[in-house]
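Key idea: predict the complex, not the pieces.
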Amino acid sequence: KMIQECVNGDDDTLDSLLADLATVNNSRERANKLFQWLISPIPAKAFFRDTWEKKPILVQRKNPHYYKELFSTAKFERILREEDVQYGVNLDVTSYTNGKRETHNPPGRALPYTVWDFYESGCSIRMLNPQAFSSTVWNVLSILQEQFGSMAGANVYLTPPGTQGFAPHYDDIEAFVVQLEGKKHWRVYNPRTEDEVLPVLSSPNFSQADIGKPILEVVLEAGDLLYFPRGFIHQGNCLPDAYSLHITISSYQKNSWGDLLQKVVPAALEIAMEEDVEFRQGLPLDYLTYMGVQNSDKDDPRRTKFFSQIERLMKKLPNYAPVDAAVDQKARDFLHNCLPPMLTSEELASTVQGAPTRWERGQVKDVGAQINTQTRVRILRAGCARLCSDGEAVHLYYTTENSRVYHKEELKSFEIKPEHTDAVEFLIHSYPKYVTVESFPCDAAEAKVALAERLFERGIIHTAEPL
Amino acid sequence: KMIQECVNGDDDTLDSLLADLATVNNSRERANKLFQWLISPIPAKAFFRDTWEKKPILVQRKNPHYYKELFSTAKFERILREEDVQYGVNLDVTSYTNGKRETHNPPGRALPYTVWDFYESGCSIRMLNPQAFSSTVWNVLSILQEQFGSMAGANVYLTPPGTQGFAPHYDDIEAFVVQLEGKKHWRVYNPRTEDEVLPVLSSPNFSQADIGKPILEVVLEAGDLLYFPRGFIHQGNCLPDAYSLHITISSYQKNSWGDLLQKVVPAALEIAMEEDVEFRQGLPLDYLTYMGVQNSDKDDPRRTKFFSQIERLMKKLPNYAPVDAAVDQKARDFLHNCLPPMLTSEELASTVQGAPTRWERGQVKDVGAQINTQTRVRILRAGCARLCSDGEAVHLYYTTENSRVYHKEELKSFEIKPEHTDAVEFLIHSYPKYVTVESFPCDAAEAKVALAERLFERGIIHTAEPL
Amino acid sequence: KMIQECVNGDDDTLDSLLADLATVNNSRERANKLFQWLISPIPAKAFFRDTWEKKPILVQRKNPHYYKELFSTAKFERILREEDVQYGVNLDVTSYTNGKRETHNPPGRALPYTVWDFYESGCSIRMLNPQAFSSTVWNVLSILQEQFGSMAGANVYLTPPGTQGFAPHYDDIEAFVVQLEGKKHWRVYNPRTEDEVLPVLSSPNFSQADIGKPILEVVLEAGDLLYFPRGFIHQGNCLPDAYSLHITISSYQKNSWGDLLQKVVPAALEIAMEEDVEFRQGLPLDYLTYMGVQNSDKDDPRRTKFFSQIERLMKKLPNYAPVDAAVDQKARDFLHNCLPPMLTSEELASTVQGAPTRWERGQVKDVGAQINTQTRVRILRAGCARLCSDGEAVHLYYTTENSRVYHKEELKSFEIKPEHTDAVEFLIHSYPKYVTVESFPCDAAEAKVALAERLFERGIIHTAEPL
Amino acid sequence: KMIQECVNGDDDTLDSLLADLATVNNSRERANKLFQWLISPIPAKAFFRDTWEKKPILVQRKNPHYYKELFSTAKFERILREEDVQYGVNLDVTSYTNGKRETHNPPGRALPYTVWDFYESGCSIRMLNPQAFSSTVWNVLSILQEQFGSMAGANVYLTPPGTQGFAPHYDDIEAFVVQLEGKKHWRVYNPRTEDEVLPVLSSPNFSQADIGKPILEVVLEAGDLLYFPRGFIHQGNCLPDAYSLHITISSYQKNSWGDLLQKVVPAALEIAMEEDVEFRQGLPLDYLTYMGVQNSDKDDPRRTKFFSQIERLMKKLPNYAPVDAAVDQKARDFLHNCLPPMLTSEELASTVQGAPTRWERGQVKDVGAQINTQTRVRILRAGCARLCSDGEAVHLYYTTENSRVYHKEELKSFEIKPEHTDAVEFLIHSYPKYVTVESFPCDAAEAKVALAERLFERGIIHTAEPL
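Result:
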């Protein structure tokens, strides 16, 4: 069953939910609850078991207010007016007319004066990273990324009545289409072949003739949700009577077993070559005379033997696979992609950003309000820091100094001395519990405080009470 | 047994052997015979079975003339005088005194005036690529590369009496030390650990304390041969009473199963990701919470399951391994490394280099002496050309326009149209038999002649009779 | 006389002045008045005649409030807390103790918690581009750049009592040291040699022994101004009883006749070579035998003749000097360096940023409020756009889409078609008068409106009345 | 008068002349005599006064043997057969048919088999650097470069009967067309405009309509010479009854006063900015408001003043012009472009290349044959080495380790210590006289011998008697 109907009350709007979530102690639990709200009334467990990566699903909510606090045309207008939105960087102007897909971006800043002119002439407007401009979108995505263990992104689409902005295509991400205002007519199609199931790359634009018959056709109304896995072709257009504003939340780009194996397998081979002399033994003197494409039709027992040896060696590779190290490589990519955490006002008071040290009437005040052994601390989010080893040194990678703009900052890290790795691991695994700096498994009290200072200054830990 | 003694007659010197080999019809057979001469009296078959890549072996020949036509100090003198030998590029001046290894290259050309001055002051002289200056070395190496199916290289070393030019070390190649003139005292040591058996990279310079006791100690005399596999540490020094000239012939650098797997394995994974949806399925939502170095001590059933899945997928990889295509990648590297064939005077007359077309007394003569359907042709050497496919187009790669200077030329190739691949494959597999152009499996006679012309003009094929 | 004393009333504070200046019709006049305020009571005319680029001057104002609205420690605190100030990029932590100058920047964001800790331990804090964070500084500098015809920059320095943050040195810019809070002891020294008068590059750090005796020594108090030309060595330190906050406003970096000649002279030579055959004639056959350093001691009449010819040709170069084109090259550099204009609220209403076109309750409103032939327009600032030719095409370069962050944006320009250059020139030269679009010297009314639209959309022109 | 007729005897052929020239003591005199032979019977002095860079001239010699030893089709055939001539690098195949100019180079080596096939089908063959393959051409050009003080180059052209290989065009070099074999019909045209007199760059291909009427039309026969300056348009074609082989000797590319000024002028400005404060003074505050293209129609007295100041400053530049240093920059370019000297057999015996130190029967011989204080030495050629200063260090630049292949080697030089510069200058200015090492103006005898050794080892000096 691909369609869920339900009637939601007005109480569960996003702002009150986010206020409630701010009191949830554990960021993973918080992520869970927010995701459950997103796909409600489908139970998350059932969703991931039956639907995720498998098939589209539709929630028709009959509640136009459900998602409205996430984003709106009013916020869009405010952003265009107040923020430095650049055509081609933050916003695209597109059209799809008579089977032709075009982009109309002029150079320079996208101001209401020109954007609305494009809109009035029938163009669709796509905002590429609303999280850089909207705190609510930032907050929601930064929470959801902990649910997915993979970057959560978003685009906003505004489409004039009676138009379509994009050609039919499939994407390389799991997509949650959240209808914010107005209505949009959607058609979703099965992947065309087995090879296009859960594809690695997005498709080009298709023509209508390429894609067969839709498996799902629906008019999405404000408050409705449409999910479809990567590989499902889709197109949406506005009916003559209504414009549409929706946001698509996405995740799981390049997050497959194969993507991880691309890190595991070459590393496994390198280790095998170091550790197993069979991998270092010379190839047969004459292998070029019976192997290779020009010999592939030959019926030669040496070919069989050669294939067997290759197979035998390849089957030994799992013995050398550095799985945890490869996972850490993927984790580092993820940490670099992450949005920084958005702080609640309570959190602000307990982090370096809100520390009381300040200039006041010609003097520095409260510079003494420092961390000591009795201070109780924890990491700011379950996933905001990660201890990885590159074989030689151990580094702590963290997201708290990331930018809301994708990859504007380098991945942040610093080296953790061998005598401090236990303490950092202890901190990470203690989450969501607060622990005293005293309790860090380090030798010297000084070292404990110095480590805590360092983590606090980078926003990685916060304190149980304000300093 | 690591030592072979024998007494060779004078008849089998290299020049007469090379003259004989010129009449051998098949270049692979020729390579075989030359290699057999090199390691005589050890039978090649036994050598490759018992010694190659396994242990050192010594042949004491009591015949100072056996190798003397391969290279000599007289030829060295001639080369310095007549050719553009550059310090640091073609020739190194080195010393190893009191445990200190130094290089003394000045800038510019290496002329006898300065080279012999260095020699007289106790420095060793290493010529880096004698094949670029000596036709005999070129000829020998270009034949041996067909025996090894891997690049054959050479260095020449001239050492003054009572000195040593290099610190103890091991190399990443199979080494045949051929004593040409004088004498040298050699010590050979076992690899220090299992990990240094058949190593991937050469070692740094060792101190005497690093290397233990030699397993072989001998004074090599002119006509003697010392072979040792990569990984065996070695050092050679001159006794006070004699200088030494030797040439080291080497092969099998980066020619192991592992080197081939470095091409096979990533390609196999890429294909698996295209063809097998299991590789494209998403990773578990929460894998970052129990995998990775910071979780490696955790006893979590999800870890076991994760490892199993990685292993299961890696064990499927051989099903997708494009072995022949990977061999062709290695083959292309080899073809690029190859020395060009050295032509006998008979061959010259039957190749494009010796074609009779010429300028004579104000006119072009014999421009009509062209290939026709009745011309009988074959490829010039068993391994001088190879048909490879990159998935889209088929190219013929060939060595006949390579330079005697390593990688001075790009790898040469040209595209073979689909309608001509059968003909080229036919030609390659017909070797060493000559075939008429008529017999090429192409449709049109014109196409046959055009193809033969093209191959002839690049020196890939030669004719049974001179044109 | 290098010292001016005066007593200013409280009425002329910056905020009220800037409010007044917003009503000044001509941006150049506005720049004049603001500069006059900066150096008051010295008359600007006298200043530029007697002091500018010649000698230091000091204004002791006995009015601590005079400059206080320009910047303050309170604003500093606000910026650190709210904006993304990065160590090393936007802010430096320095010290100069016992003759040793050090920088102490950690990586990452500069938050009050760490900045004030550095300050308390005796470090000076330099904010590198306060104009990016403070609207008042931005406004002041963007006005002053029209006065100087050269980029106006600023740094803010906060120094703890009893410390010095920088070694004695000279800069490559004209410096206006504006004391905002507290006090600072300054010593200013003459350039050490003729060659260091108005130098091209800043000096390294000097030791006290290098610099002689000060020509001016003074304690600057809040409200005071100290000006010194490039090349004058200076050092400032805090007395034990007071911290110091000052801002240094700078201009005229690389803005000398020589800097312009670097653009004029090679271009003149290129043109001379094209137009004057004497420059293309061959050098004497034998000139290498009597010219050059190894012949410079020779007394050879041919040398005299050669020098004469060089001199003769060089003296012809002014005939070919493309002065206006070279000025435009310099102008382009300046336009790229410029801060964007800061709009008053009145201006906002008459520019594209404040145009009424907007989204309101599900619809676009006032998209029709467009420019027509009756609209009265002018360029936004006297110097915000400039018409330059590269010989082939004519481009309009403009500053209105520049960033407050130095060179964050490329220099902005677009091509002006030949039929529109007169209209653009007319617009530029009409400033500060408004003109109707009708009056543009173009052929077609359509073209006039299209041109005005284009200029309006990039913020180059604004309208007399709000659209 | 553009045509010279003469009848030369057979005695003055090139080989005997070169043998005679080998005995001329001074390389500049040798260059003179060889050039005189080239243009004989025109006196060189008259040629350089009346013709060089001014107009074409033709010598009809009625002596087909005069130039024949310089190059020939027989040598061409030899080179193709024996040397590694590469299409596109060393040799071009061209045609000009029905007004269309084409190049037909295949990839790879140019062997007679394919080259003559192209020739037979009507293509012209151009050999791009015969000096790399022909010792005579190398010898002639290496001598002539001392005559010109500028690189002497050459191309060889072979054209089939009844064809033309190139479109009409002009070059950027002085051209001496030397007819070697056969005949060629030439047409020479005046430069089309004043701007194309002595042009800086070669022209594109012209159509016949572009070029007007020839000022000279002639059939060049073997032994004839045609000279024309850069800028004169020319085309040559073969009559139906004869092929043509000619060599064009060229010089004076980028060797004009303007080319030297490109080095003088920016350096003069840099020095002026360092030494003359007028160049460092700031531009007028308001210059951008009246200067620049948009103000170029303004009638403003400030413009006049601005122009005057620019002119005044430019006219001061000759005072700062580092003419000798700039000449040395040009000299270094020339030394890098130079062919290495070709040694006579006598010279060989007195240079490092021919030094007696050698390997003989297992030993180094004559390593003691070294330079001592009594050795008489001189530089090898008047222009083979040059002492230049970059302001800080003094270097000796030299041509003796250049390659016959253009820029295959970097420009060679080494630093001369301050205490040796006098000795090197003494050596250079003593040429062509030999001087004893003793007589070097250095302090220590050891230093003298060490310096002489160093110069000898790089081939810069040779000895009066063989070592």
